Amino acid sequence: MKQSKLFTKTIKELPKDEASYNALTLIRAGFIDKAAAGVYSFLPLGWRVLNKIRHIIIEEMEAISGQEISMPALAPRENWQTTGRWDDLDILFKISGSDNKEYALNPTHEEMITPLAKKFIFSYRELPFAVFQIQTKFRNEKRAKAGLLRGREFLMKDLYSFHSSQEDLDSYYELATRAYYNIFKRLGLGDKTYLTYASGGSFSKYSHEFQTLTESGEDLIYICDKCKVAVNKEIISEQSVCPQCGNKELRETKAVEVGNIFKLGTRFSAPFSLNFQAADGSKQNVIMGCYGIGLSRILGTVVEVCHDEKGIIWPESIAPFRVHLISLNKNDEAEKIYQSLLDSGVEVLFDDRDLSAGEKFADADLIGCPYRLVVSEKSLAQGGVELKRRSNKESEIIDLDKITLYFSK
Ligand code: ATP
Ligand code: MG
Q1: In angstroms, what is the span from residue 293 Cα to ligand 2's centroid?
Q2: Which is the closest atom of ligand 1 to the Cα of 151?
């Protein structure tokens, strides 16, 4: 992609009502735009990152037999009334249609997936199965001040699993936990993300959150350094020891919940009468689990966690482009390098704009691609281009004919 053609630019005018580091930085760098409190557009750079996050999540969900679907954002009132959440859920956006009927903008999809599954599940032979979607959710959040960490409209992956026994749910829940660890590792958040015990529903003692350590997180968690798990403060009154090893030396820290997995049991299958016929002929409620991850929240979290004073430092797996190629003088050599990188399948953003070196370097640091390649008279005199990793201070010269080889690793 040529930067001169990029739809957005880095900008200096920032929205006055935005206080969060992640949103301010992403707006400055041209990844997102703010439409209202907690409502953002994703621009080409931001959308590229989001799609990479999406891709990793889809791979890991398919690896645990999740089948991708897409459900509506709009739900008839009856669905939410059936579970009692039309009145109980304070963050529910309610709207009325021209048919004088009321609707909810779904904040989560148990009220949609359960009646949908009822159309296809009749016998134990159809179980277990799992479906997921990556879809926009709406929540009328009171505190939409944390940028992408708490949107009123945001992107979530939600997987739902359906089982004929508690044991089957338990073993799938373990699989899903492993998949979540893989996801956060691949997103570059593995070291900072902790499986966290949180309060459960009436069907299990605990649910589990995945919490990423950051000062801008709203949650307080207690880490057991022996087990590398944590406990959410919301349940610490009854749980002041590590639930795995009994360690009492827990370390308090701030974190943001990036994922949440939950054994729903029959909480939703009972009100919707989602039943199946068991092998012995008896009729039983289907047993369910749900597994959420906030994609847009993850994008904001990565910015909170991976940056320096100059801007973002993207993990390679989700960077908008792998290489930021900068030509300091309009030279043919830069154009040739750009073409050869494209030809060898390297994702490259080519700063071909007519700007000063200082402005180009500042933008490259702000945007945060993992590798910066600078083509200048000076580097060409040394027979190559200057290569610098965004995360390093030092640079090196690599030969012109070794560039594509370097990035084919
Ligand atoms: P929180 O405790 O932060 O309010 P939650 O427990 O209500 O979140 P879930 O209903 O479990 O969240 O949603 C699944 C995932 O969706 C969360 O783990 C989080 O990553 C993401 N998420 C939830 N609310 C928001 C929001 N307002 N903006 C962005 N992402 C969100
Ligand atoms: Mg929560």
Answers
A1: 11
A2: 28
Pick from 180-184, 198-202, 323-327: least confident:
198-202
Q: Report yes or no: 386 and 376 within 8 Å, Cβ to Cβ.
A: yes
The phi and psi torsions of 357 (rounded to 5 degrees) equal -55, -45
pLDDT in tens, 8-47: 888 888 888 899 999 999 999 999 999 999 999 999 999 9
Residue 57 beta carbon below 6 angstroms from any ligand 1 atom: no
pTM of the model: 0.97
What pLDDT does 238 receive? 66
256 CA to centre of ligand 1 in angstroms: 9
Answer whether residue 239 shows pLDDT above 70: no
pLDDT tens figures, 145-155: 999 999 999 99
Q: How many Cα atoms occupy the beta-carbon half-sphere of 105 within 13 Å?
A: 14
- Single out the residue of 4, 137, 8, 160 nearest to residue 72, CA to CA: 137
Contacts of 51 (CB under 8 A, 6+ apart): none
Q: Is 384 helix (H, G, I), strand (E, B) or coil?
A: strand
Q: Is 297 in the pocket of ligand 1 (CB under 6 A)?
A: yes
Residues 199-212: b if buried by 16+ CB within 10 A, e if exposed: eeeebbebbbbbbb
- Tell the residue nearest (CA) to atom 3 of ligand 1: 257
CB 244 within 8 A of CB 235: no
SS3 139: coil
| Closest CA to ligand 1's atom 12 | 260
Q: What is the mean pLDDT of the chain?
A: 96
DSSP of 237-283: GG--S-TTT-----EEEEEEEEEEEEEEETTTTTTTT-EEE-TTS-E
Nearest protein CA to atom 26 of ligand 1, as residue: 150
Using a 6 Å cutoff on CB, does residue 139 contact ligand 1?
yes
Residue 32, Cβ density class (10 Å: 0-12 exposed, 13-18 middle, ≥19 buried): buried
Q: Whose CA is nearest to atom 6 of ligand 1?
A: 260
Distance 294 CA to ligand 1 centre (A): 6
Q: Kindly tell me if the per-residue pLDDT of 329 is higher than 90.
A: no
Could you tell me if the CB of 108 is within 6 A of ligand 1? yes
Share of the chain above pLDDT 70, in %: 99
d(C-alpha 350, C-alpha 374), whole Å: 10
